[in-house]
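Tokens for chain A. Residues wanted.
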């Protein structure tokens, strides 16, 4: 995923009393804005250098070392459960030679010039880029700070800096045994010229990187002291909740609020173009007031639209639309041999974050404060500027911990709505979407329709490969300037245009088919690879079956010169015991291999399919080469969580449309795996000296094909449409009747598989 940024966007000066107090106490504020040189080369955002001769670094930085010895890191990337704060703090602590327990962290303010993610081109967290972006920038930051602090100690002692060592923030002169703590050196270090070029450690000298570390945010989550957006309380705050037109593209016709205004605690009814909000003294009053409204909608042109029509239109576009060629190698049309073809269909998907959408806003004549958990703080400023007409310097975003993101909080639409509501009153308002509203008004992962074919030689190896994916582009709506010159959205073909396999003739195409009636779309955990890896790895499994070969051995035979992919495949086969032992009836083992986000991953999933069509996950083995590992605990957790997220989508999740509206409302009909359905998951890390790859989304994209390939091995049923249709897996007609009867009587909580 790639984003762009408007270079003319004004920066916002953070207003942080703790930061001002730190400077007043005589602290060293290290912004790591070199006094010359190309900051981009070192992984820093443009605009982060200070003018030469500045007496100290300004308080718009990543790192602060106080005269009391405190070390603070202002995180350029947000924490939404993926462990990024611990990873970022580890990178800094490693180079600064302090303990991880000595570093405190806080959210970065909205400021593109200082905190833009150079891999995304904006101040954003997403696309599995946090460690890849911070690997250079934060290590360089720590190395420069250490250089300046040690130089200050050496100057005081009148010795060469090379004669000094540092352990846990204490500088020691080796020969004399004299010591100085970082806090004692802060003022003097601020006057030291930074090095011409950062000199981070040789990896052989790492003390923290690569070792299992406890997460720095765990204590606050245990005792409840870490604030999420929903936890925000500000003086005089009221609470609002919202109901939008259920059909996309519809508008508000009229509303009778007579009964709502009679509900105790209801303060105001706010009308928007396509929604109504009720403000109350508390959430319950707002919710009951909203339920009491008599709302009439103009349902719009899409009032009769259905999922069936969506895929009919996509199939027609795939057949007759004009494709954009993403990659072409050789001449696929001239290859002779056995042709194998398949069509795959993937649904709209909601994010269903555990913390529903919420934003607290206080709009005043002279400013606007926003408390929100967001992946894009600077974009929140942009939308607030448009709604309020205030300049950027008058808008302050107070970012919070995110109760799940998965791409949903890359979009600031709900923030704009909240600002629009809050500007109609003179007190702070927390706008909370119910779970039902969150799922019915999400920004969905687009639906996709893929047609793929391969021409095989006499050994069953693919000699030609054609993949045409049809679907909408998130990039075209979110950042159209980032589209390729030929109109290509490169995210849509990631892991399709670059296969891990050796195929001499290849053509990958995309047919753009925008979602009709303004159906909102967005990036979902795994972005483009969520559909491409499913299609590619399902199809490779089909080719293995046609060739009469073992699926793992077949993959091994067509890898070509790809040593990292070969290594994870071989280790996964070994750890999973592939090909060993008897497999009981209706049990199966599936495999998937891919290289998303700069990492290599192979997953083996074991399943049992009951005669009634229930899919029981029994075991999973994942082998990952994500380059240099910062924290093995985080990698393991992200692979496990990603697999559960992906399995949930494959088994249960899918947004369907009827009469122009979303049918799903909550976790009873948009299900996720429960703990008792989750199998043992083994994660094995491949030793590597390569640069770090992304890890937050890799498990998700591998879960779906490894599962459906396992189901095929168990039942002989090839599943090309998600979510899985259990009726296709039923062993006999009597069992099918049982399934249909059970489905019609499921409890609101959903059946246990």
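Reply:
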């Amino acid at each position: 995923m790639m984003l762009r940024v408007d270079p003319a966007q004004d920066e916002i000066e953070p207003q942080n009393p703790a930061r001002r107090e730190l400077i007043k106490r005589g602290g060293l504020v290290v912004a790591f804005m070199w006094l010359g040189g190309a900051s981009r080369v070192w992984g820093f955002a443009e605009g982060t250098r200070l003018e030469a001769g500045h007496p100290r670094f300004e308080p718009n930085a990543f790192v602060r070392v106080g005269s009391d010895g405190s070390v603070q890191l202002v995180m350029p990337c947000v924490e939404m459960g993926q462990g990024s704060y611990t990873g970022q703090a580890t990178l800094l602590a490693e180079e600064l030679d302090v303990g991880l327990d000595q570093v405190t962290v806080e959210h970065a303010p909205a400021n593109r010039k200082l905190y833009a993610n150079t891999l995304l081109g904006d101040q954003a967290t997403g696309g599995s880029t946090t460690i890849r972006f911070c690997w250079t920038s934060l290590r360089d930051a720590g190395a420069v700070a250490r250089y300046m602090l040690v130089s200050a100690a050496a100057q005081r002692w009148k010795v060469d800096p090379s004669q000094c060592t540092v352990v846990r923030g204490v500088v020691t002169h080796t020969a004399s045994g004299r010591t100085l703590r970082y806090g004692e050196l802060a003022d003097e270090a601020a006057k030291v010229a930074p090095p011409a070029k950062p000199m981070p450690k040789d990896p052989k000298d790492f003390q923290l990187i690569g070792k299992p570390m406890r997460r720095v945010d765990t204590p606050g989550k245990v005792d409840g002291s870490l604030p999420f957006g929903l936890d925000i309380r500000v003086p005089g705050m009221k609470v609002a909740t919202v109901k939008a037109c259920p059909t996309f593209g519809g508008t508000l016709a009229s509303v009778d609020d007579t009964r709502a205004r009679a509900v105790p605690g209801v303060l105001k009814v706010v009308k928007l173009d396509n929604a109504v909000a009720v403000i109350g003294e508390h959430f319950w009053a707002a919710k009951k007031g909203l339920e009491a409204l008599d709302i009439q909608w103009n349902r719009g042109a899409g009032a009769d639209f259905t999922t069936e029509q969506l895929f009919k239109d996509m199939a027609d576009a795939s057949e007759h639309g004009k494709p954009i060629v993403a990659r072409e190698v050789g001449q696929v049309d001239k290859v002779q041999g056995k042709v194998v073809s398949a069509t795959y269909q993937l649904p709209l998907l909601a994010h269903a974050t555990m913390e529903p959408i919420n934003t607290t806003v206080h709009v005043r004549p002279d400013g606007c404060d926003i408390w929100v958990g967001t992946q894009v703080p600077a974009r929140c400023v942009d939308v607030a500027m448009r709604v309020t007409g205030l300049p950027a310097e008058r808008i302050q975003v107070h970012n919070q911990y995110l109760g799940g993101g998965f791409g949903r909080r890359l979009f600031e639409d709900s923030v704009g709505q909240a600002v629009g509501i809050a500007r109609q009153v003179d007190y702070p308002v927390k706008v909370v979407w119910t779970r039902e509203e969150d799922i019915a008004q999400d920004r969905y992962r687009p639906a996709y329709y893929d047609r793929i074919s391969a021409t095989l030689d006499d050994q069953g190896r693919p000699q030609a490969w054609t993949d045409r994916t049809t679907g909408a582009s998130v990039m075209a709506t979110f950042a159209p300037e980032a589209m390729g010159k030929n109109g290509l959205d490169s995210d849509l073909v990631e892991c399709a245009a670059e296969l891990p396999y050796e195929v001499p003739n290849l053509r990958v195409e995309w047919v753009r088919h925008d979602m009709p009636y303004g159906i909102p779309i967005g990036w979902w955990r795994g972005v483009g690879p969520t559909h491409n890896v499913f299609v590619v790895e399902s199809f490779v499994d089909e080719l293995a079956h046609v060739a009469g070969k073992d699926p793992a051995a077949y993959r091994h035979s067509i890898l070509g010169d790809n040593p990292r992919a070969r290594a994870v495949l071989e280790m996964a086969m070994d750890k999973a015991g592939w090909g060993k032992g008897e497999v009981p009836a209706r049990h199966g083992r599936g495999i998937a291999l891919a290289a998303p986000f700069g990492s290599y991953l192979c997953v083996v999933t074991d399943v049992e399919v009951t005669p009634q069509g229930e899919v029981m996950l029994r075991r999973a083995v994942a082998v990952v080469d994500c380059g240099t590992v910062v924290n093995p605990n985080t990698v393991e957790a992200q692979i496990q969580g990603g697999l559960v997220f992906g399995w949930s989508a494959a088994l249960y999740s899918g947004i369907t449309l009827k009469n122009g509206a979303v049918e799903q409302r909550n976790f009873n009909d948009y299900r996720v795996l429960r703990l008792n359905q989750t199998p043992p998951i083994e994660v094995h890390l491949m030793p590597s000296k390569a640069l770090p790859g992304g890890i937050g989304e890799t498990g998700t994209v591998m879960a779906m094909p490894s599962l459906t390939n396992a189901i095929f091995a168990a039942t002989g049923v090839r599943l090309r449409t998600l979510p899985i249709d259990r009726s296709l897996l039923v062993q006999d007609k009597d069992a099918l009747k049982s399934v249909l009867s059970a489905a019609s009587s499921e409890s609101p909580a959903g059946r246990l598989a």
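The longest strand covers residues 615-625. The mean pLDDT is 90.
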